[in-house]
Amino acid sequence: MNLGIIGSGNVGGTLGTRWAQAGHQVTFATRKPDSKEMQELVAGAGPTARAASVQDAAKAEVILLATPWPATEEIVRSAGDLSGKVLIDVTNPLLNLDGLALGTTTSGGEQVAQWAAGARVVKAFNTVGNNIMADPRFGDRLLALLYCGDDAAAKKTVHSLAAELGFDPIDAGPLSQARLLEPMALLWISLALKQGLGREFAFQLLRR
Amino acid sequence: MNLGIIGSGNVGGTLGTRWAQAGHQVTFATRKPDSKEMQELVAGAGPTARAASVQDAAKAEVILLATPWPATEEIVRSAGDLSGKVLIDVTNPLLNLDGLALGTTTSGGEQVAQWAAGARVVKAFNTVGNNIMADPRFGDRLLALLYCGDDAAAKKTVHSLAAELGFDPIDAGPLSQARLLEPMALLWISLALKQGLGREFAFQLLRR
Predict the structure, then answer these.
(1) The whole model's pTM is what?
(2) Number of H-type helices and E-type strands within chain A
(3) A-contacting residues of B 116-175, CB under 8 Å?
(4) ipTM
(5) How many CA atoms lie within 13 A of B183 on its CB side?
Protein backbone atom coordinates (compact mmCIF):
# COMPACT_ATOMS: atom_id res chain seq x y z
CA MET A 1 0.00 0.00 0.00
CA ASN A 2 1.14 3.58 -0.62
CA LEU A 3 0.84 5.64 2.53
CA GLY A 4 1.36 9.39 2.83
CA ILE A 5 2.06 10.65 6.35
CA ILE A 6 1.09 14.29 6.85
CA GLY A 7 2.38 15.40 10.23
CA SER A 8 5.56 13.44 10.88
CA GLY A 9 5.84 14.08 14.61
CA ASN A 10 5.54 11.51 17.39
CA VAL A 11 2.33 9.97 16.15
CA GLY A 12 2.83 10.15 12.37
CA GLY A 13 6.47 9.18 12.74
CA THR A 14 5.63 6.14 14.85
CA LEU A 15 2.81 4.83 12.67
CA GLY A 16 4.65 5.55 9.42
CA THR A 17 7.75 3.75 10.66
CA ARG A 18 5.83 0.69 11.74
CA TRP A 19 3.92 0.47 8.44
CA ALA A 20 7.14 0.97 6.45
CA GLN A 21 8.78 -1.79 8.43
CA ALA A 22 5.79 -3.98 7.60
CA GLY A 23 6.61 -3.42 3.90
CA HIS A 24 4.32 -0.57 2.90
CA GLN A 25 5.56 2.34 0.76
CA VAL A 26 5.58 5.30 3.15
CA THR A 27 6.07 8.95 2.24
CA PHE A 28 6.63 11.34 5.13
CA ALA A 29 5.50 14.87 4.29
CA THR A 30 7.91 17.59 5.28
CA ARG A 31 8.95 21.10 4.40
CA LYS A 32 12.55 20.20 5.22
CA PRO A 33 13.46 16.90 3.55
CA ASP A 34 17.14 17.50 4.31
CA SER A 35 16.73 18.14 8.03
CA LYS A 36 18.56 15.82 10.39
CA GLU A 37 15.28 14.75 12.05
CA MET A 38 13.66 13.80 8.77
CA GLN A 39 16.70 11.93 7.49
CA GLU A 40 16.84 9.96 10.73
CA LEU A 41 13.13 9.19 10.54
CA VAL A 42 13.41 7.90 6.98
CA ALA A 43 16.54 5.88 7.76
CA GLY A 44 14.86 4.33 10.81
CA ALA A 45 11.78 3.43 8.80
CA GLY A 46 13.85 1.58 6.18
CA PRO A 47 14.10 1.27 2.42
CA THR A 48 10.39 1.59 1.70
CA ALA A 49 10.24 5.06 3.30
CA ARG A 50 11.06 8.46 1.86
CA ALA A 51 10.51 12.15 2.54
CA ALA A 52 8.61 14.49 0.22
CA SER A 53 6.41 17.57 0.18
CA VAL A 54 2.91 17.60 1.57
CA GLN A 55 1.56 17.70 -1.97
CA ASP A 56 3.65 14.67 -2.93
CA ALA A 57 2.72 12.69 0.16
CA ALA A 58 -0.93 13.47 -0.48
CA LYS A 59 -0.71 11.59 -3.78
CA ALA A 60 -0.56 8.29 -1.89
CA GLU A 61 -3.69 6.16 -1.95
CA VAL A 62 -3.99 6.33 1.84
CA ILE A 63 -3.14 9.49 3.79
CA LEU A 64 -2.53 9.62 7.51
CA LEU A 65 -3.28 13.07 8.93
CA ALA A 66 -1.45 13.55 12.24
CA THR A 67 -0.96 17.29 12.48
CA PRO A 68 -1.34 19.50 15.55
CA TRP A 69 -4.91 20.78 15.46
CA PRO A 70 -4.12 24.50 14.92
CA ALA A 71 -2.09 23.63 11.80
CA THR A 72 -4.57 21.18 10.36
CA GLU A 73 -6.81 23.38 8.24
CA GLU A 74 -3.98 25.09 6.39
CA ILE A 75 -2.12 21.85 5.71
CA VAL A 76 -5.21 19.98 4.51
CA ARG A 77 -6.20 22.85 2.23
CA SER A 78 -2.68 22.97 0.81
CA ALA A 79 -2.52 19.24 0.09
CA GLY A 80 -4.18 19.39 -3.33
CA ASP A 81 -7.14 17.41 -4.59
CA LEU A 82 -8.09 14.74 -2.08
CA SER A 83 -11.16 13.39 -3.88
CA GLY A 84 -11.62 9.71 -3.26
CA LYS A 85 -8.56 9.42 -1.03
CA VAL A 86 -8.68 7.37 2.13
CA LEU A 87 -7.77 9.95 4.74
CA ILE A 88 -7.09 8.61 8.22
CA ASP A 89 -7.71 11.45 10.62
CA VAL A 90 -5.64 11.02 13.79
CA THR A 91 -5.94 14.62 14.92
CA ASN A 92 -7.63 15.71 18.11
CA PRO A 93 -8.99 19.23 18.39
CA LEU A 94 -7.32 19.79 21.74
CA LEU A 95 -7.80 23.23 23.18
CA ASN A 96 -5.46 22.28 26.00
CA LEU A 97 -5.44 19.44 28.50
CA ASP A 98 -8.77 20.61 29.84
CA GLY A 99 -10.89 20.57 26.76
CA LEU A 100 -11.56 20.15 23.10
CA ALA A 101 -11.89 23.07 20.72
CA LEU A 102 -15.03 21.53 19.26
CA GLY A 103 -18.04 19.79 20.77
CA THR A 104 -17.98 18.82 24.47
CA THR A 105 -19.28 22.21 25.53
CA THR A 106 -21.02 20.95 28.64
CA SER A 107 -22.39 17.75 30.15
CA GLY A 108 -25.35 16.25 31.90
CA GLY A 109 -23.23 15.89 35.04
CA GLU A 110 -22.58 19.61 35.24
CA GLN A 111 -26.22 20.32 34.51
CA VAL A 112 -27.33 17.98 37.30
CA ALA A 113 -24.94 19.73 39.69
CA GLN A 114 -26.65 23.02 38.90
CA TRP A 115 -30.08 21.55 39.55
CA ALA A 116 -29.01 19.74 42.72
CA ALA A 117 -27.75 22.87 44.42
CA GLY A 118 -25.14 22.08 47.03
CA ALA A 119 -24.96 18.35 46.32
CA ARG A 120 -21.55 16.77 45.87
CA VAL A 121 -22.11 15.27 42.45
CA VAL A 122 -20.01 12.40 41.14
CA LYS A 123 -20.56 11.15 37.62
CA ALA A 124 -20.24 7.38 37.63
CA PHE A 125 -21.71 4.04 36.49
CA ASN A 126 -22.88 5.71 33.29
CA THR A 127 -20.47 4.08 30.86
CA VAL A 128 -21.66 0.46 30.86
CA GLY A 129 -25.04 -1.23 30.63
CA ASN A 130 -26.91 -2.60 33.60
CA ASN A 131 -26.12 -6.16 32.51
CA ILE A 132 -22.46 -5.35 33.18
CA MET A 133 -23.24 -3.79 36.55
CA ALA A 134 -25.26 -6.87 37.50
CA ASP A 135 -22.23 -9.04 36.82
CA PRO A 136 -18.94 -7.37 35.90
CA ARG A 137 -16.97 -10.61 35.73
CA PHE A 138 -15.07 -11.31 32.53
CA GLY A 139 -13.02 -14.22 33.78
CA ASP A 140 -10.48 -12.76 36.20
CA ARG A 141 -10.45 -9.31 34.57
CA LEU A 142 -11.64 -6.19 36.35
CA LEU A 143 -13.50 -3.69 34.21
CA ALA A 144 -12.78 0.01 34.32
CA LEU A 145 -15.37 2.08 36.15
CA LEU A 146 -14.62 5.72 35.41
CA TYR A 147 -15.93 8.43 37.67
CA CYS A 148 -15.39 12.16 38.07
CA GLY A 149 -16.41 14.90 40.47
CA ASP A 150 -15.24 17.97 42.33
CA ASP A 151 -15.45 16.64 45.90
CA ALA A 152 -12.64 14.33 47.03
CA ALA A 153 -14.57 12.67 49.87
CA ALA A 154 -17.60 12.04 47.66
CA LYS A 155 -15.33 10.44 45.06
CA LYS A 156 -13.81 8.20 47.72
CA THR A 157 -17.30 6.96 48.56
CA VAL A 158 -18.05 6.20 44.93
CA HIS A 159 -14.68 4.53 44.53
CA SER A 160 -15.40 2.04 47.28
CA LEU A 161 -18.98 1.45 46.09
CA ALA A 162 -17.60 0.56 42.66
CA ALA A 163 -14.84 -1.63 44.06
CA GLU A 164 -17.42 -3.55 46.12
CA LEU A 165 -19.23 -4.44 42.90
CA GLY A 166 -16.06 -5.86 41.41
CA PHE A 167 -14.94 -2.97 39.23
CA ASP A 168 -11.56 -1.30 38.81
CA PRO A 169 -12.58 2.27 39.82
CA ILE A 170 -10.67 5.03 38.06
CA ASP A 171 -10.75 8.69 39.02
CA ALA A 172 -11.09 10.67 35.79
CA GLY A 173 -10.77 14.10 37.41
CA PRO A 174 -13.20 16.98 38.00
CA LEU A 175 -16.92 16.91 37.23
CA SER A 176 -16.33 18.66 33.92
CA GLN A 177 -14.80 15.38 32.76
CA ALA A 178 -18.40 14.19 32.47
CA ARG A 179 -18.00 15.79 29.02
CA LEU A 180 -15.78 12.81 28.26
CA LEU A 181 -17.58 10.08 30.20
CA GLU A 182 -20.99 10.77 28.67
CA PRO A 183 -19.72 10.38 25.09
CA MET A 184 -18.07 7.15 26.26
CA ALA A 185 -21.49 5.97 27.35
CA LEU A 186 -22.96 6.70 23.95
CA LEU A 187 -20.02 4.84 22.42
CA TRP A 188 -20.85 1.76 24.51
CA ILE A 189 -24.52 2.02 23.59
CA SER A 190 -23.91 2.45 19.88
CA LEU A 191 -21.38 -0.39 19.75
CA ALA A 192 -23.85 -2.61 21.59
CA LEU A 193 -26.98 -1.76 19.66
CA LYS A 194 -25.86 -0.53 16.25
CA GLN A 195 -22.45 -2.01 15.53
CA GLY A 196 -23.40 -5.57 16.36
CA LEU A 197 -21.30 -6.14 19.45
CA GLY A 198 -24.30 -6.84 21.65
CA ARG A 199 -24.39 -5.93 25.31
CA GLU A 200 -21.84 -8.40 26.69
CA PHE A 201 -18.70 -6.32 26.32
CA ALA A 202 -16.88 -3.65 28.29
CA PHE A 203 -13.49 -2.01 28.58
CA GLN A 204 -10.65 -3.01 30.83
CA LEU A 205 -7.90 -0.53 31.52
CA LEU A 206 -4.60 -2.34 31.02
CA ARG A 207 -1.42 -1.03 32.65
CA ARG A 208 2.17 -2.05 32.00
CA MET B 1 -24.04 3.11 54.23
CA ASN B 2 -27.48 4.60 53.54
CA LEU B 3 -28.17 4.69 49.83
CA GLY B 4 -31.12 6.34 48.11
CA ILE B 5 -31.87 5.14 44.59
CA ILE B 6 -33.71 7.71 42.48
CA GLY B 7 -34.73 6.05 39.25
CA SER B 8 -35.36 2.39 40.04
CA GLY B 9 -35.31 1.03 36.50
CA ASN B 10 -32.76 -1.34 35.02
CA VAL B 11 -29.72 0.58 36.18
CA GLY B 12 -30.88 1.85 39.56
CA GLY B 13 -32.59 -1.45 40.29
CA THR B 14 -29.47 -3.44 39.49
CA LEU B 15 -27.04 -1.28 41.45
CA GLY B 16 -29.40 -0.88 44.41
CA THR B 17 -29.98 -4.62 44.58
CA ARG B 18 -26.29 -5.41 44.53
CA TRP B 19 -25.46 -2.85 47.22
CA ALA B 20 -28.37 -4.03 49.39
CA GLN B 21 -27.14 -7.60 49.04
CA ALA B 22 -23.71 -6.36 50.15
CA GLY B 23 -25.36 -5.14 53.37
CA HIS B 24 -26.03 -1.45 52.67
CA GLN B 25 -29.35 0.18 53.63
CA VAL B 26 -31.02 0.88 50.28
CA THR B 27 -34.13 2.98 49.69
CA PHE B 28 -35.68 2.76 46.24
CA ALA B 29 -37.57 5.92 45.35
CA THR B 30 -40.94 5.34 43.78
CA ARG B 31 -44.32 6.98 43.31
CA LYS B 32 -45.95 3.56 43.60
CA PRO B 33 -44.55 1.70 46.63
CA ASP B 34 -47.33 -0.90 46.37
CA SER B 35 -46.82 -1.74 42.70
CA LYS B 36 -45.94 -5.34 41.88
CA GLU B 37 -42.64 -4.28 40.23
CA MET B 38 -41.49 -2.33 43.26
CA GLN B 39 -42.47 -5.05 45.71
CA GLU B 40 -40.55 -7.60 43.65
CA LEU B 41 -37.52 -5.31 43.46
CA VAL B 42 -37.46 -4.79 47.23
CA ALA B 43 -38.00 -8.50 47.93
CA GLY B 44 -35.18 -9.41 45.55
CA ALA B 45 -32.83 -6.92 47.15
CA GLY B 46 -33.42 -8.40 50.61
CA PRO B 47 -34.06 -7.20 54.16
CA THR B 48 -31.89 -4.07 53.97
CA ALA B 49 -33.97 -2.65 51.09
CA ARG B 50 -37.22 -0.71 51.15
CA ALA B 51 -39.35 1.52 48.93
CA ALA B 52 -40.16 5.14 49.70
CA SER B 53 -40.90 8.49 48.09
CA VAL B 54 -38.29 10.45 46.17
CA GLN B 55 -38.09 12.92 49.06
CA ASP B 56 -37.53 10.09 51.54
CA ALA B 57 -34.92 8.35 49.41
CA ALA B 58 -33.12 11.67 49.01
CA LYS B 59 -32.54 11.79 52.77
CA ALA B 60 -29.94 9.03 52.43
CA GLU B 61 -26.30 10.09 52.77
CA VAL B 62 -25.53 8.85 49.26
CA ILE B 63 -27.99 9.23 46.39
CA LEU B 64 -27.81 7.37 43.12
CA LEU B 65 -29.50 9.29 40.31
CA ALA B 66 -30.45 6.90 37.50
CA THR B 67 -33.39 8.59 35.83
CA PRO B 68 -34.15 8.88 32.12
CA TRP B 69 -32.65 12.19 31.03
CA PRO B 70 -35.95 13.98 30.13
CA ALA B 71 -37.30 13.29 33.65
CA THR B 72 -34.14 14.25 35.50
CA GLU B 73 -34.58 17.97 36.08
CA GLU B 74 -38.06 17.67 37.54
CA ILE B 75 -37.14 14.78 39.83
CA VAL B 76 -33.96 16.41 41.10
CA ARG B 77 -35.75 19.69 41.77
CA SER B 78 -38.48 17.82 43.66
CA ALA B 79 -36.07 15.87 45.84
CA GLY B 80 -35.67 18.52 48.53
CA ASP B 81 -32.51 20.04 49.92
CA LEU B 82 -29.49 18.16 48.59
CA SER B 83 -26.80 20.32 50.19
CA GLY B 84 -23.73 18.30 51.07
CA LYS B 85 -25.17 15.04 49.73
CA VAL B 86 -23.05 12.66 47.73
CA LEU B 87 -25.01 12.41 44.50
CA ILE B 88 -23.88 9.75 42.07
CA ASP B 89 -25.02 10.83 38.64
CA VAL B 90 -25.54 7.83 36.37
CA THR B 91 -27.68 9.64 33.85
CA ASN B 92 -26.72 10.16 30.24
CA PRO B 93 -28.26 13.03 28.30
CA LEU B 94 -29.17 10.80 25.39
CA LEU B 95 -31.00 12.52 22.59
CA ASN B 96 -31.40 9.17 20.92
CA LEU B 97 -28.94 6.50 19.84
CA ASP B 98 -27.26 9.01 17.55
CA GLY B 99 -26.34 11.76 19.93
CA LEU B 100 -26.29 13.48 23.26
CA ALA B 101 -28.60 16.36 24.11
CA LEU B 102 -25.65 18.32 25.49
CA GLY B 103 -22.10 18.88 24.28
CA THR B 104 -20.77 16.77 21.38
CA THR B 105 -22.11 19.18 18.81
CA THR B 106 -19.47 18.43 16.21
CA SER B 107 -15.98 16.97 15.89
CA GLY B 108 -12.60 17.52 14.39
CA GLY B 109 -13.18 14.52 12.14
CA GLU B 110 -16.24 16.09 10.56
CA GLN B 111 -14.43 19.40 10.24
CA VAL B 112 -11.50 17.70 8.50
CA ALA B 113 -13.92 16.02 6.10
CA GLN B 114 -15.26 19.45 5.14
CA TRP B 115 -11.78 20.80 4.52
CA ALA B 116 -10.61 17.69 2.63
CA ALA B 117 -13.39 17.88 0.08
CA GLY B 118 -14.12 14.50 -1.47
CA ALA B 119 -11.70 12.55 0.73
CA ARG B 120 -12.95 9.38 2.39
CA VAL B 121 -12.13 10.35 5.96
CA VAL B 122 -11.75 7.74 8.68
CA LYS B 123 -11.14 8.86 12.25
CA ALA B 124 -8.65 6.47 13.83
CA PHE B 125 -5.50 6.09 15.92
CA ASN B 126 -6.48 9.18 17.89
CA THR B 127 -7.40 7.53 21.19
CA VAL B 128 -4.01 6.30 22.42
CA GLY B 129 -0.56 7.83 22.71
CA ASN B 130 2.23 7.20 20.24
CA ASN B 131 4.02 5.06 22.83
CA ILE B 132 1.09 2.62 22.58
CA MET B 133 1.15 2.71 18.77
CA ALA B 134 4.87 2.00 18.79
CA ASP B 135 4.26 -1.12 20.86
CA PRO B 136 0.68 -2.14 21.60
CA ARG B 137 1.63 -5.33 23.44
CA PHE B 138 0.25 -5.76 26.95
CA GLY B 139 1.19 -9.40 27.39
CA ASP B 140 -1.11 -11.38 25.11
CA ARG B 141 -3.89 -8.78 25.17
CA LEU B 142 -5.02 -6.87 22.09
CA LEU B 143 -5.93 -3.25 22.64
CA ALA B 144 -9.04 -1.70 21.17
CA LEU B 145 -8.44 0.58 18.20
CA LEU B 146 -11.67 2.42 17.53
CA TYR B 147 -12.32 3.98 14.16
CA CYS B 148 -15.27 5.57 12.39
CA GLY B 149 -16.09 6.87 8.95
CA ASP B 150 -18.72 7.02 6.24
CA ASP B 151 -16.98 4.96 3.55
CA ALA B 152 -17.02 1.18 4.03
CA ALA B 153 -14.03 0.46 1.79
CA ALA B 154 -11.92 3.15 3.45
CA LYS B 155 -12.80 1.69 6.85
CA LYS B 156 -11.74 -1.75 5.65
CA THR B 157 -8.34 -0.33 4.76
CA VAL B 158 -7.96 1.26 8.17
CA HIS B 159 -9.12 -1.93 9.84
CA SER B 160 -6.34 -3.96 8.27
CA LEU B 161 -3.72 -1.26 8.90
CA ALA B 162 -4.64 -1.35 12.59
CA ALA B 163 -4.69 -5.13 12.75
CA GLU B 164 -1.20 -5.21 11.20
CA LEU B 165 0.07 -3.14 14.11
CA GLY B 166 -1.33 -5.60 16.62
CA PHE B 167 -4.55 -3.86 17.58
CA ASP B 168 -8.12 -5.13 17.90
CA PRO B 169 -9.78 -2.79 15.37
CA ILE B 170 -13.37 -1.88 16.18
CA ASP B 171 -15.75 -0.11 13.81
CA ALA B 172 -17.52 2.58 15.83
CA GLY B 173 -19.90 3.65 13.05
CA PRO B 174 -20.22 6.78 10.88
CA LEU B 175 -17.78 9.69 10.91
CA SER B 176 -20.03 11.63 13.27
CA GLN B 177 -18.94 9.14 15.93
CA ALA B 178 -15.71 11.15 16.02
CA ARG B 179 -17.75 13.18 18.51
CA LEU B 180 -17.28 10.21 20.83
CA LEU B 181 -13.75 9.15 19.88
CA GLU B 182 -12.22 12.60 20.34
CA PRO B 183 -13.46 12.93 23.93
CA MET B 184 -12.06 9.43 24.50
CA ALA B 185 -8.69 10.76 23.38
CA LEU B 186 -8.85 13.61 25.85
CA LEU B 187 -9.80 11.08 28.51
CA TRP B 188 -6.66 9.06 27.75
CA ILE B 189 -4.53 12.21 27.78
CA SER B 190 -5.93 13.52 31.03
CA LEU B 191 -5.64 10.15 32.78
CA ALA B 192 -2.04 9.90 31.58
CA LEU B 193 -0.89 13.40 32.37
CA LYS B 194 -3.15 14.68 35.14
CA GLN B 195 -4.55 11.70 37.01
CA GLY B 196 -1.21 10.01 37.55
CA LEU B 197 -1.66 6.93 35.38
CA GLY B 198 1.28 7.78 33.15
CA ARG B 199 1.36 6.87 29.48
CA GLU B 200 1.66 3.09 29.72
CA PHE B 201 -2.02 2.18 29.79
CA ALA B 202 -4.78 1.60 27.29
CA PHE B 203 -8.18 0.00 26.98
CA GLN B 204 -8.96 -3.52 25.89
CA LEU B 205 -12.46 -4.36 24.78
CA LEU B 206 -13.50 -7.55 26.58
CA ARG B 207 -16.25 -9.72 25.19
CA ARG B 208 -18.09 -12.62 26.81
Answers:
(1) 0.80
(2) 8, 11
(3) 116-126, 130, 133-134, 138-139, 141, 143-144, 146, 151, 153-154, 157-158, 161, 164-165, 170-173
(4) 0.82
(5) 28
